Amino acid sequence: MTKIIGLTGGIGSGKTTVARYIAEQGIPVYIADEEAKKVMNTPEVRSLVTETFGDSVLENGVINRQKLALLVFNAPEKLHQLNSIIHPKVKQDFENWVQKHQNHPFVIKEAAILFESGSYQFCDKIITVTAPENVRLQRVMQRDGITEDQVLARMQNQWKEEDKIALSDYVIQNVNIEDTKSQVDNILKSLKNNQ
Question: Are 22 and 74 in the same domain?
Answer without folding.
Answer: no
